[in-house]
């Protein structure tokens, strides 16, 4: 059974309510039909008629109290709640929905901002990032072709601390959703000091921080892509590596590298890419590519549901 099928089976085993605020998007409507037909989750399509006026006023007041110290005026807050996105995010914060999926219409920046401000950040990291689940067909690397790629959607140029946090949260998702043992590789154009630059040092520093924060997590860096995922190459370039060329969680040095790589792998290999899945929030939430298909929305809803179990 492939990774996507396993995720869908796990989602169906324990039904969760996932709110979808983009009610007028045709792909979302089609995805909801599939989800309901296959019994994968309880999709709550937040149409305007489901928005309770009194509850909306309560959310506006609550949001205003949270951020008025940052010079946010009431009229600005009301504008934010003029669509269903922020209402859905506050529902998730309050527990009226188990998770949130959006992004077929809104940009990643819009979704991330709503989720960070309404759902809030995990106090362990105080950092929101993202990852993709990549399910590559006919692939012997990773976990039979399954990988986590991070961060491919949120932080443009993460520092060493941020890279360490991204790695920990991505590894947690790998264990939670995919039920695999995470093997983390911090990627670079350098393998174990083959290039002496500040960019490579940032990656090795991230590994050092990770070992302090999560000493039991299997990880290595800095590693070139081939040394990270191909055992034969790892034996040549980094024979002492604890992951031995079998990484399944790949941490990219910056957003540019991560985003380019995931899109190329997706298009060239025909793999299924689920995400961006937000990491570091208090409640699970998932973004979508604006070029997504209905099946992509179904997959994101299932992953979000499994994360809440």
How does this model look, in words?
It is a single chain. The protein has about 300 residues and is of the alpha/beta class. The strands form two sheets. It has a six-stranded mixed beta sheet, sandwiched between helices. It has a four-stranded parallel beta sheet with strand order 2-1-3-10, with helices on both faces. The chain has two domains: about 1-120 and about 280-309, Rossmann fold, CATH 3.40.50.10950; about 125-280, Rossmann fold (3-Layer(aba) Sandwich). It has twelve helices and ten strands. Helices cover about 45% and strands about 15% of the residues.
Features:
alpha/beta, 12 helices, single chain, six-stranded mixed sheet, Rossmann fold, 2 domains, 10 strands, 309 residues, four-stranded parallel sheet, 47% helix
Q: Estimate the global geometry from the Cα principal axes.
A: globular
Low-confidence stretches: none
Largest sheet: 6 strands, mixed
Averaging pLDDT over every residue, what do you get? 94
Total number of strands:
10
- What is the terminal-to-terminal distance? 21 Å
Order of helices and strands: HEHEHHHEHEEHEHEHHEHEEH
Radius of gyration: 20 Å
Assigned CATH class of the largest domain: Alpha Beta
Sheet-strand content, in percent, reads 15-25%
CATH architectural group of the largest domain: 3-Layer(aba) Sandwich
Q: Fraction of residues in helices?
A: 40-55%
Number of helices: 12
Order of adjacent strands in the largest pleated sheet: 7-6-8-5-4-9
What is the CATH topology descriptor of the largest domain? Rossmann fold
């Amino acid at each position: 059974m492939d990774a996507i099928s396993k995720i869908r089976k796990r989602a169906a085993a324990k039904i969760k309510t996932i709110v979808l605020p983009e009610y007028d998007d045709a792909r979302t409507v089609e995805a909801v039909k599939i989800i309901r037909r296959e019994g994968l989750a309880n999709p709550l399509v937040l149409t305007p008629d489901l928005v309770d006026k009194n509850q909306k006023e309560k959310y506006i007041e609550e949001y205003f109290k949270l951020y008025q110290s940052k010079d946010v005026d009431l009229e600005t807050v009301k504008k934010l709640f003029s669509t269903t996105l922020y209402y859905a995010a506050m529902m998730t914060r309050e527990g009226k929905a188990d998770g949130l999926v959006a992004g077929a219409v809104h940009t990643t920046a819009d979704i991330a901002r709503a989720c960070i401000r309404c759902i809030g950040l995990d106090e362990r990291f105080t950092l929101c990032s993202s990852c993709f689940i990549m399910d590559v067909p006919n692939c012997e690397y990773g976990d039979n072709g399954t990988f986590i790629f991070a961060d491919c959607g949120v932080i443009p140029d993460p520092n060493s601390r941020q890279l360490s946090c991204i790695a920990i949260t991505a590894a947690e998702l790998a264990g939670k959703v995919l039920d695999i043992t995470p093997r983390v590789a911090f990627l670079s154009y350098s393998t174990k000091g083959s290039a002496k630059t500040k960019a490579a040092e940032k990656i090795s520093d991230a590994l050092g921080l990770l070992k302090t924060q999560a000493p039991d997590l299997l990880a290595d860096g800095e590693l070139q892509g081939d040394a990270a995922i191909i055992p034969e190459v790892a034996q040549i370039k980094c024979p002492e590596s604890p992951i031995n060329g079998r990484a399944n969680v790949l941490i990219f040095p910056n957003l540019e590298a991560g985003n380019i790589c995931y899109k190329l792998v997706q298009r060239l290999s025909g793999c299924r890419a689920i995400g961006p899945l937000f990491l570091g929030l208090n409640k699970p939430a998932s973004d979508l590519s604006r070029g997504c298909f209905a099946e992509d929305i179904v997959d994101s809803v299932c992953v979000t549901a499994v994360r809440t179990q």
